[in-house]
């Protein structure tokens, strides 16, 4: 547990990072640095997005797979790293 | 078998079956039997040897049979006929060989004498009988009359058959045949007709006819129809799935997650750092030259004059005291024109003043020469405001302390554009400027005020500031903000140097029954006489308008002076979403609100709003800023409602405060301008201004925030200069100074018409209204809100730091002083001790000198030592 915490701390200490969420394969948040309602909202929406993206990538080339997803918006950037069992989501504000 | 059964039923004794029972067609006196070969030899009746077909008879002695029967008892063949043989009368029994099995067995025994005789004689007779059979002799036929019928029926020739021979004349043989026609209708015999006739057989009407019927169950027709489904709103409510704490911990400590986290981290590191190094989506080229620059590249902060309005008749030699842009119609601006006279001059020249009534002029960009509308005022208006919910209602505060209401709905068309709409007859002023306005085509309409407040109940000093309260709340009589059910602005705040801040309500107050009737009467009467064409909107308030609440700022805490209010600024209200039940709104068909019918609702009906701040800031004539609440508290002694004590007062400016303005970007930053400097305040920080400008050489007359750039504001000076201050650029001096006119600036108001047109309306002491266009460099938000916020926060921390320092230093000072005091007292007490110390020191000195050989006393005897 300590190693995971340490990794999270290292990410959090980067400049501009607003929040980190770890969710399991079903989309239920495991750990988060944001408040509960935001976490739940992010988890639900991004889980679906990653599923869609992954299926898109695999449809185009079945031997390919999604490794990283970055969603850039006006106010911030959402980065998602998918895995077989977990997703790690980081929200960063790059312009600060 | 029936015989058998009869015998069984009737006779009880057992009876041996007779052969006739078994074989019913055998005569009774013959008994068929079987003879074994032993028996046959014994009785010499061997089949086909002794007895043959032709000679089948054999006579047997009775005694022999009996002997046989005795010898062989039951085995004997004659056993069955034992009784009969015993009873046989004769001496000899006949045994017949039945080769043809006529009676079923190969032998049969004749049981009676008669039968024996008969059978012995029979064969001869029988054979004879079988040889011939003669037919019976014929008898003569007896006639029974049948031959007559036969004769009748038979066909006989009654006579001889005649024979004829017919032939044609010889000459006609072989001659050609001549056919002739004959009309068939000539003679009746020519043809035979079969006419049709109605066969009478078929004229019979069938009266009865057989027909079949069938009984069937009752039939019933019925129908069904399914309900037509219609869409209906359905709701679901869901809750997100969450893990329990244990599960979370399980996950967190799982090996899987650890590996994942470490592998994912590297990806993130790259991405995050990439973002930090460079923002790839930022378009530098565009940012370099954003928007359009009028003069192609010149960094230009010059406020270009767009238009200037001055009226030779009405605003010449006068001063403009207040400017207000029309909130909805773009390009329309209103100014209030006042006389430049001091109080004494006013008293002396009051007659002249009555002749030239002061005005509010409406200017439109479309017409720089003529004002669009003139509003007549009872006295010089120092401040006026448009109602935010209905821009046709204007409220103004006059120099005599009255509040004035105008209703310009009739002229709204005119203000909208160049339309020759309704023309109103201007009132006949005695000796007024009417002489110049003989041209009826382009009349500038003059509108008189609808209502003024009552003189006794109003302010006692010139009203310096008026403001409308926002439409989402209103104030009740005790000063508690309650919900505004009408959602229109109905209340006004005014302040004056008589230490009063008054709240006014434009609705009719709750009257008693009889006064309502009175007022109705009054209204009916006055409706007839309406020569001046004043709209009746606020007739009910005319001359009887009383303020709702008076908030007195004279408080015993500050002994030296009472306050004279000059400028007012309301706290921003927090928008509170509540469901409002609308009642008491009477809307005219056009949708205009009928103010006369609005009533001030009783306090109980309204719900107080909790989250509206009741604090406001007032700037005073002496240069003070007062921050207080308008809620009325109860005075314990007298039981009257009194205003509360102000929470904060600060003397910052040297002369009267002429501007108290909130920043359009930050809700708690306030700019105050007065005397020779200005200050920026933060509402929550009540230690002092967060920014205080240095004193300038000329008086600052007015200030206003920029609408587009946070951290920028404009200051108008006494010498006609406009200073542009940008807090992020320079804080010790303005970033840009520009001279507008030679007279002092009296009022400034910025306005945004479109994204390219940002204007600043500046009025001066000459009565000229200048419209300046803010250039791109000044209107472009070069600084973001966050950076300005940061600056303010920095200032706040500085302030805090200084305050703290002051405190600590004060503490330290007192501490050191106390210490010193202590020391002093201590030192006084121990003077004797110090003398003693001095003595001991002297002796010590002597000893040391002695040791060193530099003693003063020993120098006198040097010879001894050597």
UniProtKB/TrEMBL annotation, chain A:
Primary localization: cytoplasm
Pfam family, one: Robl_LC7
Keywords assigned: Cytoplasm, Cytoskeleton, Dynein, Microtubule, Motor protein, Transport
Domain of life: Eukaryota
Segments forming domain Roadblock/LAMTOR2: 4-92
Entry's Gene Ontology cellular component terms: cytoplasm; cytoplasmic dynein complex; microtubule
A GO biological-process term: microtubule-based movement
GO molecular function: dynein intermediate chain binding
Subcellular location field: Cytoplasm, Cytoskeleton
Xref: InterPro entries: DYNLRB1/2, Roadblock/LAMTOR2_dom
Family to which the UniProt record says this protein belongs: Belongs to the GAMAD family.
Function as written in the Swiss-Prot or TrEMBL entry: Acts as one of several non-catalytic accessory components of the cytoplasmic dynein 1 complex that are thought to be involved in linking dynein to cargos and to adapter proteins that regulate dynein function. Cytoplasmic dynein 1 acts as a motor for the intracellular retrograde motility of vesicles and organelles along microtubules.
Protein name: Dynein light chain roadblock
Species per Swiss-Prot/TrEMBL record: Scleropages formosus (Asian bonytongue)
Origin organism lineage: Eukaryota, Metazoa, Chordata, Craniata, Vertebrata
From TrEMBL, chain B:
One GO BP: inner dynein arm assembly
Cell location: Cytoplasm
Region listing for Disordered, in residue ranges: 812-835
GO cellular component terms listed in the entry, alphabetical order: inner dynein arm
Keywords, alphabetical: Cytoplasm, Repeat, WD repeat
InterPro entries (alphabetical): Dynein_IC, WD40/YVTN_repeat-like_dom_sf, WD40_repeat_dom_sf, WD40_rpt
An example Gene Ontology molecular-function term: dynein heavy chain binding
Main location: cytoplasm
Entry superkingdom: Eukaryota
Compositional bias of kind Basic and acidic residues: 812-829
Coiled-coil stretches noted in the UniProt entry, renumbered to this chain: none
Pfam family, one: WD40
PANTHER family, per database record: DYNEIN AXONEMAL INTERMEDIATE CHAIN 3, DYNEIN INTERMEDIATE CHAIN
Listed name of the protein: Dynein axonemal intermediate chain 3
Organism: Scleropages formosus
Organism ancestry: Eukaryota, Metazoa, Chordata, Craniata, Vertebrata
């Amino acid at each position: 547990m300590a190693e995971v915490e340490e990794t999270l701390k290292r990410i959090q200490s980067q400049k501009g990072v607003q929040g980190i969420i770890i969710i399991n394969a079903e989309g239920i948040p495991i750990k988060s640095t944001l408040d509960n309602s935001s976490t739940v909202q992010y988890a639900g929406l991004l889980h679906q997005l990653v599923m869609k993206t992954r299926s898109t990538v695999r449809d185009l080339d079945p031997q390919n797979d999604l490794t990283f997803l970055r969603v850039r918006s006006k106010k911030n950037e959402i980065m998602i790293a998918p895995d077989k069992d977990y997703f790690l989501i980081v929200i960063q504000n790059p312009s600060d | 078998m029936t015989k058998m059964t009869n015998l069984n039923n009737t006779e009880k004794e057992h009876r041996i079956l007779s052969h006739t029972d078994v074989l019913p067609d055998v005569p009774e006196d013959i008994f068929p039997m079987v003879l074994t070969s032993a028996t046959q030899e014994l009785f010499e009746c061997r089949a086909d040897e002794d007895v043959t077909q032709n000679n089948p008879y054999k006579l047997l002695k009775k005694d022999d049979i009996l002997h046989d029967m005795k010898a062989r008892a039951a085995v004997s063949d004659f056993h069955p006929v034992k009784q009969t043989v015993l009873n046989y009368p004769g001496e000899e029994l006949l045994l017949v060989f039945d080769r043809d099995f006529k009676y079923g067995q190969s032998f049969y025994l004749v049981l009676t004498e008669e039968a024996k005789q008969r059978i012995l004689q029979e064969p001869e007779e029988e054979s004879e009988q079988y040889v011939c059979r003669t037919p019976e002799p014929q008898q003569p036929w007896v006639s029974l009359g049948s031959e007559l019928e036969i004769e009748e029926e038979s066909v006989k020739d009654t006579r001889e058959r005649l024979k004829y021979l017919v032939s044609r004349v010889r000459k006609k043989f072989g001659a050609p045949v001549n056919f002739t026609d004959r009309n068939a209708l000539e003679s009746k015999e020519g043809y035979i007709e079969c006419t049709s006739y109605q066969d009478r057989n078929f004229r019979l009407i069938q009266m009865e006819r057989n027909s079949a019927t069938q009984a069937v169950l009752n039939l019933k027709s019925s129908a069904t129809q399914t309900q037509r489904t219609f869409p209906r709103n359905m709701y679901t409510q869901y809750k997100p799935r969450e893990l329990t704490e244990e599960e979370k911990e399980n996950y967190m400590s799982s090996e899987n997650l650890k590996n994942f986290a470490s592998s994912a981290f590297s990806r993130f590191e790259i991405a995050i750092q990439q973002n930090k190094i460079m923002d790839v989506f930022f378009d530098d080229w565009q940012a370099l030259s954003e928007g359009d620059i009028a003069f192609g590249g010149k960094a230009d902060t010059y406020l270009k004059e767009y238009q200037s309005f001055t009226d030779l008749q009405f605003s010449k030699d006068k001063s403009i005291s207040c400017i207000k842009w029309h909130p909805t119609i773009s390009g329309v601006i209103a100014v209030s024109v006042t006389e430049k006279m001091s109080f004494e001059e006013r008293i002396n020249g009051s007659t002249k003043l009555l002749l030239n009534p002061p005005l509010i002029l409406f200017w439109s960009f479309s017409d720089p020469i003529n004002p669009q509308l003139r509003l007549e005022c009872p006295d010089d208006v120092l401040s006026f405001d448009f109602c935010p919910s209905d821009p046709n209602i204007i409220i103004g505060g006059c120099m005599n302390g009255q509040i004035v209401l105008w209703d310009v709905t009739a002229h709204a068309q005119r203000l909208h554009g160049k339309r020759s709409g309704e023309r109103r007859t201007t009132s006949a002023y005695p000796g007024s400027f009417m002489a110049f306005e003989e041209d009826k085509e382009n009349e500038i309409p003059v509108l008189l005020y609808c209502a003024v407040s009552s003189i006794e109940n109003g302010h006692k000093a010139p009203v310096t500031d008026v403001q409308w309260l926002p439409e989402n709340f209103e104030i009740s009589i005790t000063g508690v903000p309650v919900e505004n059910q009408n959602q229109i602005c109905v209340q006004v705040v005014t302040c004056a140097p008589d230490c009063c801040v008054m709240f006014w309500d434009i609705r009719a107050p709750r009257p008693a029954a009889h006064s309502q009737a009175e007022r109705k009467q009054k209204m009916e009467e006055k409706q007839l006489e309406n020569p001046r064409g004043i709209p009746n909107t606020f007739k009910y308030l005319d001359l009887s308008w009383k303020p709702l609440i008076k908030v007195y700022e004279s408080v015993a805490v500050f002994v030296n002076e009472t306050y004279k209010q000059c400028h007012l600024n309301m706290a921003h209200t927090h928008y509170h979403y509540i469901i409002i039940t609308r009642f008491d709104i009477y809307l005219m068909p056009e949708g205009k609100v009928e103010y006369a019918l609005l009533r001030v609702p009783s306090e109980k009906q309204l719900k107080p709003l909790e989250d509206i701040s009741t604090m406001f800031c007032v700037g005073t004539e002496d240069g003070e800023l007062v921050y207080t609440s308008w809620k009325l508290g109860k005075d314990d002694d007298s039981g009257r409602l009194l205003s509360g004590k102000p929470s904060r007062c600060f003397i910052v400016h040297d002369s009267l405060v002429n501007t108290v303005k909130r920043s359009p970007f930050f809700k708690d930053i306030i700019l105050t301008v007065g005397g020779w400097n200005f200050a920026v305040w933060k509402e929550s920080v009540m230690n002092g201004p967060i920014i205080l400008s240095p004193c300038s050489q000329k008086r600052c007359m007015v200030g206003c925030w920029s609408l587009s750039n946070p951290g920028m504001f404009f200051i108008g000076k006494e010498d006609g200069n406009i200073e542009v201050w940008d807090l992020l650029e320079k804080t010790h001096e303005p970033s840009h100074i520009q001279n507008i006119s030679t007279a002092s600036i009296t009022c400034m108001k910025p306005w945004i018409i479109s994204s390219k047109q940002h204007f600043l309306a500046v009025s001066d002491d000459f009565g000229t209204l200048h419209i300046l266009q803010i250039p791109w460099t000044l209107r472009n938000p070069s600084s973001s809100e966050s950076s300005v916020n940061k600056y303010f926060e920095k200032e706040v921390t500085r302030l805090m730091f200084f305050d703290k320092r002051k405190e600590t230093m004060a503490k330290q000072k007192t501490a050191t002083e106390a210490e010193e005091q202590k020391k002093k007292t201590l030192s006084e007490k121990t003077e004797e001790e110090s003398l003693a110390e001095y003595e001991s020191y002297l002796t010590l000195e002597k000893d040391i000198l002695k040791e060193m050989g530099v003693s003063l006393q020993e120098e006198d005897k040097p010879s001894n030592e050597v």
